[in-house]
Every structure is written in structure tokens, then in C-alpha cells.
């Protein structure tokens, strides 16, 4: 009998505010340890939190983007536990009434097609500091720069049935968050962190006992960790054992997970309402205003690119991976409006391919969308051929030269003068009487021979379409 | 007795009859003479006090009488719970021994801006947890009316210092009666403003939803002056209210009769077990109010008997979290040679906290723990709502409520230390006011066994003017507030 995998995901996403969740300290990444702290985020006596309203707005925007309900009154609670990088001995979070509930994210996977994944809630909370133990003898170091950075915790329903679905959900969520501009979502900087709750069951049976996989900071590790955990749980059960509810830490070096703590050892967080913060009230008007400022989301852009520009689903997907890409593409179409498909093909295949080889992202592209459009223009008006276009693009990417300057300097302008082409064809026909006779006798494969000869004679600059057309006429004539 | 009130000092300063330095020196002399006996102050820097007084005199000289600020040159002592950049802030706990805050509490800033001269830190129960000032890590504080007795608590040091005229006025904090009960037990006036009236920023938290700072003074008007200086919205304390009704604090104190005033007398506050003489004093005071034109109305606050139980769930629950930050990682006491993290936590906190603080942390952690939360914390919050409703209904019928402040007078040092439950019951009349977030004021109204008795006034939220009006009228008709413990009644320091 087969096993069914059940996955729910919790994503901790740092909100990219200038200042922390409850104090005025900077949130800039990478500063010297403990330089971005103040009495509030150090948990000094008598200090009180003041909620960052920008963090609230960005959480609401995220909630609206996943079609969630915004609770006009939500609450803050204290989550109590002792750890040296948690200065107050409690984390301010939203336990009982989160800001956002009942959203969803639509995913598509090869194995299961289109599917809707429920988002249970998005709540606001504060990040803890960082503890450092490695390479230190009998002491630990604490950096509290991260203490108090605002987080959204995005909790999914246990709706995913494979690691592929989980990754699709995460990538989709990651993309939406990047599009909204509510987080840097840089996984390597810990701005987008995922915990996965994994269990297995026989189809139709109640949920099995779940384990929580922690500390996974790349999509690849998340997939590996889930796959590993599924195999482990199935083995435990098939060997007659029981899965223990526990937290497990993924070791990306050893490619295995190990138990962190079981439920019995788990903290009792003693949640209770945060008395220092009144309930968070937002008006419907504020929510509506945030909604009005909602940027176009990836799925909306994809649909528009397909409908408005006639792109294939594949190209539309490629060009909407990031806001940067779609903006660049739209700028390109604005500068070369005649052929959005040519824009898409050349951008997706030629430009992005070259950037990848150069190990650069679009933000550091040596040429602008307008400069790229000039190149497309020159192909559209037959000044150069597509083949020459690729060479021109190479040069543009390397030196930043404009298409026109390079074509001019190198004399790459193709010959589209029908008189000149006719003369070249006549010369070649005269020089190749045997081939001409054979062609006229029905050996049509020789057409390619004549094209090749003309292109050779023109040093590749004859307009290929025109050569084809003129050759067909002149070879026929007798 | 050097001066009868803050107001009197202010008048004399304004009239040029004395200077801030003279006033400060006079009180410093009295502190030097009496503090060893009372232990009301746990920190005092005489030079710093005189420096502030000199600066105030200079300010007055530069700006003239009309340019003088509201509390220009007036000495104010503050409980050791207020963070100050000057001197240590220790909350009378070993875990904060020698802690220096790098910031002033909001109310300290306000006092400085008003020109006050800050006179040291006063003794208190450790982290404000107590009703007698006996849990202080820096020694018990004594009641000037009988130095074998406690001054009440937790703001016992402030109460003792004002009652013995070691300072003309002081700030305290009140979580379950910690201003009003010691005011009552030492024969002075103390007011807890409406929750949200005064910023809590920089005041070391005990129970955040209940804590409120307020004045401890010799007269009602002084209490009004001091409250006017410290109250107001603080954008950095989200529980202060931006659009709180503004009051004319001093005008409220001009009331001289009680004509048309309906005073609610809750039957639940006059029960078996209260001291007979205390009851007699309060009933006499109520008759006096009738004579001043008030109408006494019997009312009921039916959930009164649940208040203490609810309070001793909610306050310790909040405290258990508020005191988690004393983990020895960033500041405060750390044990010697910890073996590991757990050892560092447990030993540092074991050494740093006293027995009562530990008892409350444990009680609170238990009440919040998984499986008990609904039965304790949630239930207590429901009781809190019921108590609030009791008051709301009562205030539909009456303008103000009058009760005893404490069922007993000051007890002997050590008398109740082994019996925390009896100790907790000494706050039986004050706790409900904190749970409901209302303003309350205690003023002297007589003596029982030669010890002061307090009358408590309770008003609707934001109506401190009603409290001050009633109390001013009563004060004008009586002279209980003028009584001074004989041993501390000399004019200046030293010669007693």
C-alpha cells in the first residue's frame, strides 16, 4: 500500500523596514555586532515597545496579496522562554489573534498540476538576536543587532503532498514577497527562513504524527530535508515503530537530520496578552488604501503578458520571475513596440543567457533596454540579419557599444539592394552552368548551393530573405 | 516641621523669602538626622541635590518669578523603581545592585523640565512586591509614627520620608495599592492616577497592566501639582492615552464643600475583620462629608471579594514575564563561575531575587502554564471585567466612591512576614481600583491606636478632578493632614 506525505510550512520573513519592530534602531544587515541596539531592543528595565506602523502596512499588503482576511483588530502576546539572544526573556508575537488569516497561494507542479494551498495565518513578531558558539572557548557571543527586527510568520495549511509541492509553494510565496517589496527575502541572510512540518499516512487515514524540520536556508536543502524525512518516517513505521513528535535539525553537510528536542522536552511558552501594547486596530479605509497601492502580482503579470503581448506561457513565466525582469521587459517593449514576441525571445534566450554566462544579474546588465531595442530595430528593418544580431549583441554586452555604432564601424549593414543582389546571382549562375542545369532539371536540393554562394560572395551581408526570393525567380527563368 | 506643603515652599521661593539651596539644605539636614532610623532613603547624593538647587536658583534669577517653572526648586524624592541617569536604580533588589540606567524615566524628565530638585531614591519592597517595605533588599523601612512598625508598601520609603518631612513630596508607584496603602499608614496623601494618565516608560515594570506612578504628598493640592507635572501622553508608552481628557488640576483643588455630591459607600468595604477603630474613623469622616453637603448612597460592588484572588493571578503572571530580563546576560547580578548557561541563569536569579519575588514569579509562571491558563489567568481576566462593570454600574448612581484605604493600621515589623496571605489581604480595598484602571486617592482621616487611618476616594476613569475636589473639601474642613509624628516635628535638622 502506498504512503501519502503531508506537509505544512512555516515561513519567517524579515520585513524590510528602516527601523526595528518596536524601537528606532536601524535594521541594516551586516553591521558590527551590537552597534544597532538601544535600551528597548536590549530589554533594559522599564523600556517599552512602540509598534512600527510600516511593518503593519507591509504585513497587511502581504495578506491582501495572498487573498487573506485582514483582522481589523489583532492582538500581541508574549511568548516566554529563556535564551541569551532573547533580551526580554519573551518574544512579542501574535498568538491568539493574528493580523491576517485565511489566505491562499496557487501552485502548479508537474506531478499534480494546479493546486490551491491554504495559508492559515500571517502574524507579526520580532526576531531574536544571534548566538555564536563556534570557535569560542567556554563562552558564547551574543549579537543583538537582529533583536527586534520585524518578522512576518506565514503559516500554511497542511495542504502539500510532496516536496515538489512544498517547493512550488515556497517559490511562489518568495516571488510574491519580492514583488511586493516587503522583504529582501534573501535566504542566505536569513531574511526568508522555513520550517517544515512533515508526516506520512495511508491515504484516507487521519494525519500521522508530524516532525518539524528546522534550519533550512535554501530551496534545495528544504527539498532534501523533506525527502529524507519522508523516507525516515516510512522506515520507522514499516519497521513497526512510531514516529515521535519532535523538532529535527537539517545538517546540509551530512545530508541528514537529527533530533533537536522531543515534545516532552519542548518549552511551555506560557503565552499571555502583551500588556505593553494595546490591541492593534486598523480601519477598513487603511486596508483599502493599502489595497489600492498593490502592485501587479506575478500571476497577474503572466496573464497580461500572455494576453497583451501574445507570449507563450513559458516566456511569460520566465519574464515574470522577478519584478526586475518584468520591468525590464516592459521597458524593452515600450522601446520596440512593433514586436513584443521578438522582445521576449531575444531577452529570454539571448540577453539572459549571456548575463548568466557573465554571472551577472539584470541590475548589472551592461546595456539598457533602450539600447537593446535598437538592436531589435536593426533586425526588424533588415539592416542586419539575426545571425549578425547575435554577434552585435556579444559586442554590446562586452563593451557597452551601441548597436548602430558597432554595425557602422564594422560595416555589418546587410545588402538589401535588389539590383546588387541580382548582379551577384547572375555572376554565380554564369560561373556554375552545370549546377544551374541540374537545378532546372529538377534537382531542387541545389537551391542551398546557390544561397551559400551568394552569401559567400556578399561576405554574409546580403539580406537572406531577399536572396531567397530573388534566387527563386532568377533560377526559374530561362 | 519645616514647611507644611510643597505649595508653601513654592510661595516662599516666589516671594524671595528663601532659596532652593536653603530648602534643599534644610531637607538634607533632616535626612542626615533621621534616615538612619527610618531607612526611607536607599540612595542620596547630597552634592548632586545641592547642585540641582543651585541651578534652579540660577534659573529663577535669570527668568524671574513669572519665568519660574511649575516645580521650580521644589525637592521631590522618588521611589527606587524610577530609572535615573544620576545615581543607581536598583528597585531595592540585589539582582540590580549597582545598576545605573543610561536613561531617565519619562516622569523624571518631566520633573527635571518642571524645575524640581530630585532628592535621592526611596526604599521600597523589592520590585514593588509587598505591602510593608519589608521585602527590600536594602533593609526594612520604618513608620515615623511608630518606628517599630512598617510604613506600608510598596512605596514605603516615599511614604515614610514625606510623613517625617525628610522631603516635602515624593513619587511612588501603585500596582495594587502601593501608593495609597502606605499613604494611609503614614498619614499622608497619595494618589494613583487613571491607568494611562502617566507614562510608565523608564519605570521598572512589576505588572504592566496595573502599574501607575503618582504623587505622595502632605496636601491634596500638592498631589495635584505633582500629577500635573508628570502626567500626559508619551508616544513611547503605547498605554498612555493621546486624547485623555485634560483637567485643570489646581482648580479642582479649590472645592470647599460637597453640595450635591453623591458619595457611594460600598457595603462590601465595611465588613467583619476590619479594625473597629479604623471603621469608626472612616464612618466619622463620611459623616463629615454629609455635613459638607454630600449625599451618602449605599452601593454594592458585588465582586469585591474576588479582587484579591484575581490580582494575585494577573500581577504575578505579568511579573513572571517582566522579570525574565534579569537573566545576568546583559546587566545585573551574575553568579561567580557559572558552569553552564542553565547554572548561570538559575544561580544568578536565585542569588539576586528575594523570597517574595521568587514566590510571585513561580505563582505567575504556574498560572500561565499550559493546562492551567484557562483556570487561572483567563478566569482572573474575566473577574477583572466583572469588577470593572461593578464600578461602571456604581458610577451611574454616584459621583465618587469613598472607602477605607486599608482595613488595618500599620502593623509591627515582622508581624506578617511569615504569612504572605494575610499580608496580601492588607491591599483588599485598593486592589480593585487597579484592576479597573480607575483613579484613587488616599488622605488622612483620623487615628486608630494612635496610628494614622486613611480615607480612599475612587472616581470614574479620567476624573481625577472629582477625587481632588472631594478630598480638597474634606481636607479644608479637617486638620488630620497637619498632624506630624512628634519625634520628627522639629523645624530643622539635627537638633531633635
Strand order of the largest sheet of chain B: 1-3-2-4-6-5-10-11-9-7-8
Helix and strand content put the structural class of chain A at alpha+beta
Succession of helices and strands of chain B: HHEHEHEHEHEEHHEHEHHHHEHHEEH
- Order of strands, main sheet of chain A, comes to 2-6-7-10-1-11-12-13-14
Measured between the Cα atoms of the first and last residue of chain A, the distance is 77 Å
Structural domain tally of chain B: 1
What is the makeup of the main sheet of chain A?
9 strands, mixed
| Strand residues, percent of chain A | 15-25%
Report the average pLDDT across residues of chain A.
90
* Record field, number of beta strands of chain B: 11
The beta-strand count of chain A equals 16
Category from helices, strands and their pairing of chain B = alpha/beta
Put the structure in a nutshell.
Chain A is an alpha+beta fold and 478 residues long.
Descriptive report:
The complex is a heterodimer of chains A (478) and B (496). Chain A is of the alpha+beta class and 478 residues long. In chain A, 40% of the residues lie in helices and 19% in strands. By secondary structure, chain B is α/β, with parallel strands linked by helices. Chain B has one domain: Amidase signature (AS) domain (Amidase signature (AS) enzymes), CATH 3.90.1300. Chain B has helices at residues 6-14, 20-38, 46-67, 106-113, 156-163, 180-186, 220-230, 249-252, 276-291, 304-322, 341-352, 355-368, 374-394, 420-425, 431-436, 464-477; strands spanning 41-43, 75-79, 117-122, 169-174, 189-192, 212-217, 262-266, 295-299, 400-404, 440-448, 451-458. In chain B, strands 1-3-2-4-6-5-10-11-9-7-8 form an eleven-stranded mixed sheet, sandwiched between helices. In chain B, α5 (156-163) runs parallel beside α6 (180-186), α10 (304-322) crosses α12 (355-368) and α10 (304-322) crosses α13 (374-394). Chain B is globular. At the A-B interface, loops of A face α10 of B.
Amino acid at each position: 500500500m502506498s504512503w501519502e506525505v503531508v506537509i505544512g510550512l512555516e515561513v519567517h520573513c524579515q520585513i524590510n523596514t528602516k527601523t526595528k519592530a518596536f524601537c528606532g534602531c536601524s535594521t541594516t544587515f551586516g553591521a558590527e555586532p551590537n552597534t544597532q541596539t538601544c535600551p528597548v531592543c536590549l530589554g533594559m528595565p522599564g523600556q517599552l515597545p512602540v509598534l512600527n506602523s510600516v511593518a503593519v502596512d507591509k504585513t497587511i499588503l502581504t495578506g491582501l496579496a495572498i487573498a487573506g482576511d485582514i483582522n481589523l483588530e489583532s492582538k500581541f502576546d508574549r511568548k516566554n522562554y529563556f535564551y541569551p539572544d532573547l533580551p526580554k526573556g519573551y518574544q512579542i508575537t501574535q498568538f491568539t489573534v493574528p493580523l491576517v488569516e485565511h489566505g491562499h497561494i496557487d501552485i502548479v507542479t508537474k506531478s499534480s498540476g494546479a493546486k490551491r494551498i491554504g495559508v492559515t495565518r500571517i502574524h507579526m513578531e520580532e526576531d531574536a538576536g544571534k548566538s555564536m558558539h563556534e570557535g569560542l572557548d567556554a563562552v558564547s557571543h551574543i549579537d543583538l543587532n537582529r533583536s527586534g527586527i520585524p518578522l512576518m510568520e506565514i503559516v500554511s495549511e497542511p495542504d502539500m503532498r510532496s516536496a515538489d509541492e512544498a517547493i512550488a509553494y515556497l517559490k511562489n510565496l518568495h516571488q510574491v514577497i519580492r514583488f511586493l517589496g516587503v522583504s529582501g527575502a534573501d535566504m542566505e541572510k536569513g531574511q526568508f527562513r522555513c520550517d517544515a512540518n512533515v508526516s506520512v499516512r495511508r491515504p484516507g487515514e487521519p494525519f500521522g504524527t508530524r516532525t518539524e524540520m528546522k534550519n533550512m536556508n535554501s530551496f534545495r536543502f528544504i527539498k532534501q530535508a523533506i525527502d529524507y524525512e519522508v523516507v525516515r518516517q516510512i522506515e520507522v513505521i514499516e519497521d513497526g515503530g512510531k514516529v515521535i513528535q519532535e523538532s529535527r535539525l537539517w545538517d546540509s553537510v551530512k545530508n541528514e537530520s537529527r533530533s533537536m528536542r522531543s515534545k516532552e522536552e519542548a518549552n511551555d511558552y506560557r503565552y499571555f496578552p502583551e500588556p505593553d501594547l494595546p490591541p492593534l486596530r486598523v480601519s477598513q479605509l487603511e486596508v483599502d488604501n493599502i489595497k489600492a497601492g498593490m502592485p501587479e502580482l506575478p500571476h497577474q503579470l503572466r496573464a497580461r503578458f500572455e494576453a497583451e503581448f501574445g507570449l507563450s506561457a513559458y516566456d511569460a513565466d520566465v519574464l515574470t520571475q522577478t519584478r526586475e525582469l518584468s520591468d525590464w521587459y516592459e521597458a524593452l517593449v515600450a522601446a520596440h513596440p512593433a514586436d513584443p514576441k521578438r522582445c521576449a525571445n531575444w531577452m529570454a534566450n539571448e540577453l539572459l543567457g549571456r548575463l548568466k554566462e557573465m554571472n551577472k544579474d539584470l541590475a548589472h546588465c551592461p546595456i539598457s533596454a533602450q539600447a537593446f531595442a535598437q538592436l531589435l530595430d536593426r533586425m526588424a528593418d533588415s539592416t542586419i540579419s539575426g545571425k549578425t544580431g547575435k554577434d552585435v549583441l556579444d559586442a554590446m554586452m562586452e563593451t557597452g557599444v551601441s548597436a548602430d555604432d558597432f554595425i557602422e564601424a564594422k560595416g555589418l549593414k546587410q545588402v538589401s539592394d535588389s539590383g546588387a543582389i541580382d548582379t551577384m546571382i547572375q555572376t554565380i549562375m554564369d560561373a556554375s552552368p552545370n549546377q544551374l542545369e541540374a537545378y532546372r532539371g529538377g534537382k531542387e536540393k541545389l537551391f542551398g548551393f546557390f544561397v551559400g554562394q551568394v552569401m559567400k560572395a556578399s561576405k554574409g551581408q546580403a539580406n537572406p530573405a531577399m536572396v531567397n526570393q530573388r534566387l527563386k525567380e532568377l533560377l526559374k527563368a530561362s | 516641621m519645616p514647611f507644611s506643603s510643597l505649595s508653601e515652599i513654592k510661595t516662599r521661593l516666589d516671594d524671595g523669602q528663601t532659596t532652593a539651596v536653603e530648602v534643599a539644605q534644610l531637607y538634607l539636614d533632616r535626612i542626615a538626622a533621621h534616615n538612619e532610623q527610618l531607612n526611607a532613603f536607599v540612595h542620596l547624593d547630597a552634592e548632586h541635590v545641592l547642585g540641582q538647587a543651585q541651578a534652579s536658583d540660577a534659573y529663577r534669577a535669570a527668568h524671574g518669578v513669572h519665568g519660574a517653572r511649575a516645580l521650580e526648586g521644589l525637592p521631590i524624592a522618588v521611589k527606587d523603581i524610577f530609572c535615573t541617569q544620576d545615581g543607581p536604580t536598583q528597585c531595592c533588589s540585589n539582582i540590580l545592585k549597582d545598576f545605573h540606567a543610561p536613561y531617565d524615566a519619562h516622569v523624571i524628565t518631566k520633573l527635571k523640565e518642571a524645575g524640581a530638585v530630585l532628592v535621592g531614591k526611596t526604599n521600597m519592597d523589592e520590585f514593588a512586591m509587598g505591602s510593608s517595605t519589608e521585602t527590600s533588599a536594602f533593609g526594612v523601612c520604618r513608620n515615623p509614627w511608630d518606628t517599630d512598625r512598617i510604613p506600608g508598601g510598596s512605596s514605603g520609603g516615599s511614604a515614610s520620608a514625606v510623613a517625617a518631612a525628610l522631603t516635602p513630596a515624593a513619587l511612588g508607584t501603585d500596582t495594587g495599592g502601593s501608593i495609597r496603602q502606605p499613604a494611609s499608614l503614614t498619614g499622608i496623601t497619595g494618589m494613583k492616577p487613571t491607568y494611562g494618565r502617566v507614562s510608565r516608560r523608564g519605570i521598572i515594570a512589576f505588572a504592566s497592566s496595573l502599574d501607575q506612578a503618582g504623587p505622595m504628598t502632605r496636601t491634596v493640592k500638592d498631589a495635584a501639582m505633582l500629577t500635573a507635572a508628570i502626567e500626559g501622553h508619551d508616544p513611547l508608552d503605547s498605554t498612555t492615552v493621546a486624547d485623555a481628557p485634560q483637567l485643570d488640576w489646581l482648580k479642582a483643588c479649590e472645592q470647599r464643600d460637597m453640595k450635591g455630591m453623591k458619595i457611594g459607600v460600598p457595603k462590601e468595604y465595611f465588613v467583619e475583620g476590619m479594625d473597629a477603630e479604623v471603621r469608626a474613623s472612616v464612618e466619622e469622616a463620611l459623616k463629615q462629608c454629609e455635613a459638607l453637603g454630600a449625599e451618602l448612597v449605599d452601593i454594592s460592588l458585588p465582586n469585591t471579594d474576588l479582587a484579591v484572588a484575581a490580582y494575585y493571578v494577573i500581577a504575578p503572571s505579568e511579573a513572571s514575564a517582566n522579570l525574565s530580563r534579569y537573566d545576568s546576560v546583559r546587566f545585573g547580578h551574575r553568579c561567580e563561575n557559572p558552569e553552564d548557561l542553565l547554572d548561570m541563569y538559575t544561580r544568578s536569579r536565585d542569588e539576586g531575587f528575594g523570597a517574595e519575588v521568587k514566590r510571585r514569579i513561580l505563582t505567575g509562571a504556574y498560572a500561565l502554564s499550559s493546562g492551567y491558563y484557562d483556570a487561572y489567568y483567563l478566569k482572573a481576566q474575566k473577574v477583572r471585567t466583572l469588577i470593572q462593570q461593578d464600578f461602571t454600574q456604581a458610577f451611574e448612581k454616584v459621583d465618587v466612591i469613598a472607602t477605607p484605604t486599608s482595613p488595618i493600621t500599620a502593623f509591627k515589623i515582622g508581624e506578617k512576614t511569615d504569612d504572605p496571605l494575610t499580608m496580601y489581604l492588607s491591599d483588599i480595598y485598593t486592589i480593585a481600583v487597579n484592576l479597573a484602571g480607575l483613579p484613587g486617592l488616599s488622605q488622612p482621616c483620623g487615628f486608630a491606636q494612635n496610628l494614622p487611618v486613611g480615607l480612599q476616594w475612587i472616581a470614574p476613569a479620567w476624573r481625577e478632578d472629582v477625587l481632588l475636589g472631594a478630598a480638597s473639601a474634606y481636607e479644608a474642613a479637617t486638620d488630620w493632614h497637619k498632624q506630624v509624628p512628634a519625634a520628627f516635628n522639629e523645624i530643622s535638622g539635627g537638633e531633635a
